[in-house]
Design a protein that fits this description.
This protein has 717 residues and is mainly alpha-helical. The protein is built from 32 helices and 4 strands.
Amino acid sequence: MKISALLTSAGINIGLCTLFLSLYSILRKQPSNLSVYFGRRLSEEHNRRDSFSFDRLVPSAGWLMKAWRTTDEEILSSVGLDAVVFLRMLVFSIRIFAIAAGVCLFGVLPFNYYGNEMTHTKIHLEKIDVFSIANVEDGSQWLWIHCLALYIISSTACFLLYLEYRNISRMRLAHITESPPNPRHFSVLVRSIPRTHDEPFDVTIVNFFTKYHGSSYLSHQMISQAGTVQKIMYNAKKVYKKIIRLKNTSFNQHHRSSNYRCGLCGGGSRPLHTYHNAFELEAKRYELESSVSRTTKKDSSAAFVFFKTRYAAVVASQIPQSSDPMLWAIDLAPEPNDVYWSNLWVPYRLVWLHRITVQIATLAFMVVFTIPVTFVQGLSHLDKLQKKFPVLRDLLKKSFLIQIVTGYLPSVLLMLALYTVPPVMMLLSRFEGCISHSGKRKSACGKVLYFTIWNVFFMNCFSASFIRNLVSAPTDIPTMLAKLLPGQAAFFITYVLTSGWASLSAELLQIFPLICNFIKRTLGISDDDPSVLSFPYYTEVPRVLLLSLIGFTYSVLAPLILPFLLVYFLLAYLVYRNQFMNVYRTKYDYGGQLWPLVHNTTIFSLVLTQVIALGFFGLKKSPIASGFTIPLVILTLLFNENCKNRFYPIFCKLAAQFLQDLIEMDQQDEQSGRMQEIHKQLLMIYRQYPADTDDIELVDEEPQTPGDSSLNCLQRI
């Protein structure tokens, strides 16, 4: 690919980013879009304003300064630890790639450009390969510059990674020990309870835990196989709350039809009257309760068991309860609103079969996805395919069309194809047998990460190699291998522009919620209780880690990609801070457990970069540079082992220090008299039927009227 094609792609993406950012700065000021761009803040403040101002029609960048001034403490208190971990991942990327850009752009790039004796033409007519290590002459004495740059990047990355791992570990400990009493710390999930013919599961659980955990056992709650009833009750709760809201809302006796309704949507609208009849909510409530009692529920071999102290629950979850590992399987319980009830009555003996099936399906999907990846690479190498297929010459005679097809279209098609991956991986993770929604999303995050790394990074290189073999002689294979990865730098630069820059602008604009909000307003559908989105970690974390992998791999091989990556991470830092404070809310908390995935992927990226550089130094006939790279790989692996032993136990299991903290928390609750209140809450907190009418309070709520604070809501935002 020539620089002109790259500049064409960059110009298109910069134009789209500028357009989206300008639209966002205008649309966010419109009162009708407050539920789209300030969903989290509106759900907390319940404030709106609908007054016209000319400032609403003028683009502005004030939101950037507000996002920049937001502190990590504010995000931690508002959104949670997971958002802080995600932002720290971006901060780490900004720091390391700023250092890499300074070292490689001024230290490595000039030697790549002048590394071979050739006549350089104008910059925009040059190919990107002349800026990569492929342009360095074999046996060049300047290859030690690349080795030195690799040492600087690797050592700096390890140092920064250590600091982040240490700080996030401390935040995780503080998140657990300093937070209010959490019911999950007193609860465990017991599965695969042995079945006996002469006694029900309830009696089996009581006998077992009173015998082996008699001093700490409190109570238990059986899990029933009644998924259909649960869904009916959940929908009934939503309808019931809607009735309560309508009952307590003041209506005009004659309400005019909506101005947004068109004549094509049906008949004319009637005046809305307050609905009065003999319908009594208490009667419906009694009928709702009796419908549940009449429904037969079959207890599954799973239950929540509650203990008197945190320490007892943790010890019970860590120690095997039986010589048969398939009986009395115990795990720490998830959060009450995080429980994935549909998977709890899956027989524990079949969970492994579910996981194997999901792994096979994931591999099959990865294989099928190689077809669009190969097609995309074919578009990136049309100049080579034209030699093999002359019919393409007539189709691409215009240079501008070639620049669009080879420089912009491949990355766009690949990005659109990748949008199908997260929903598929989420569907597979549901079948995997996870006991919590957060665990399901964490599993999907790992699947999406491995999928994108394999198909976007490795398969793009392998498919490019296959396409080049169609037009290369066997004697050119060593040269082709030496130029394979640097030759893909152009594609990955355009991928950073489309999947990075453009996707950030689309994320900021919230296109799909904006369209839904417009349709609701057009049809006159009221949105008194708009849903607030939760942050999709399973899509955004893999995207950031993939771009980091690309940045590490090409930092020394083709440093031209680093400025584009650095701009992406800077923009992502501001965009996601803004989204966390205004748009998203925390629904399922990972407790910072995504950081080990970030750390391991970063170590993998560093080792892969070093191994690839080692191969290039060998192909470029530089034994000194190759010899100095081998110790770097070993030191990076030793650093990873040190971090694994020092910090990872805090994220995967409860260390002795953490158990001491739990004992101290139990003692403080006993001394303050809060333990009895906690025990009472435990018996009611894990409700399998969240729509149980006992949870619905019949309170005549006053209709909320906007006060003085709501009149200034838009100005404060």
